[in-house]
Amino acid sequence: MAGIMHRSLAPFSVVWAVLVASSLSSWRIGGQSELGSLPADLLVVIFIALKIHLIGGYFMELRHAPRLLTLTFNLWIAAVSIMILALL
Amino acid sequence: MNLELPQRELSKASKPEVPGEEGVWVVIFGEMIVFSILFAVFLDARQKDAAAFEAGRAALDLTLGVVNTLILLTSSFAVAAAVDLYRKGDAWSARALTLVAALLGLGFCITKAFEYKAKLAAGAAVFDNPFHVYYFLLTGLHLVHVIVGIGILLTMSAYMGRPGHPARQRLMESGGLFWHLVDLLWIVIFPLLYILH
């Protein structure tokens, strides 16, 4: 399985590590006793946005896609993030 | 590595290309919109019955939710790597990674089954709390997408026997994109149900 050690997989690995770290951080924030405070919720939503942005950009390869497609995708992220914060 | 097959090089140097088949993005955005409407409905319902929803949330198994998140993130990593390796002619590794992703997807379903079993152990009374209606609606609809996604991954791996031409590479990208959709939807659903309040 030498192909798996291909250097070009490094970006995916880095993205995966960031995704996992973000998820564990959100879990940690969620486990804190001062749940429901705005800063904690804001941080969790920021992590949601960051993670989806990374999945779209790197895993879904939107980095190399036409700008309009990428913009639409990121607009959805922004809209959902704002909606969650507004309705918390 | 077979260097004779034309490859779709998605690199900074080349012209921007739509990943996968263009039609798959209609599906992807369509699903994203449908789910965001469901998210809005859930958030609105929660505002109106905060105590009940919080009670429901607090009773969820956060650890299982995190496990499922890590499972999907890792499976997306595997799929992204698989598609990339397939484009580069390493069909064997691509197939192996796609199967790993499908197995992880199965792991998600099994974890979900445990969660559902625990929840439904109390019987239909669980739906006295409106939170659980939304819980099963959101996670259930998502689970259907996971199952469809696993089917797509298995189909992809079946066709990954040999490196393919750009048209086939594009199909693999499309299948991968659907799986990333499954992943990104859970990235919202998990905190929405299990963490935020």
The poorly predicted ranges of chain B are: none
Give the CA-based shape of chain A.
Answer: flat
Helix content range of the residues of chain B, please?
over 70%
Range of helix content of chain A: over 70%
How much is the radius of gyration of chain B in Å?
19 Å
Defining traits:
heterodimer; A: 88 residues; mainly alpha; flat; B: 197 residues; 6 helices; 0% strand
Commentary on this structure:
The complex is a heterodimer of chains A (88) and B (197). With 88 residues, chain A is mainly alpha-helical. Chain A has helices at residues 10-30, 38-59, 67-86. Chain B has six helices and no strands. In chain B, 46% of the residues are buried. Chains A and B meet through helix 1, helix 2 and helix 3 of A and helix 1, helix 3, helix 4 and helix 6 of B.
Outline the secondary-structure elements.
The complex is a heterodimer of chains A (88) and B (197).
Chain A (H helix, E strand, L loop, with lengths): L9 H21 L7 H22 L7 H20 L2
Chain B lengths: L21 H27 L1 H9 L3 H26 L3 H30 L9 H29 L7 H30 L2
What's the gist of this structure?
The complex is a heterodimer of chains A (88) and B (197). With 88 residues, chain A is an all-alpha fold. Chain A has three helices and no strands.
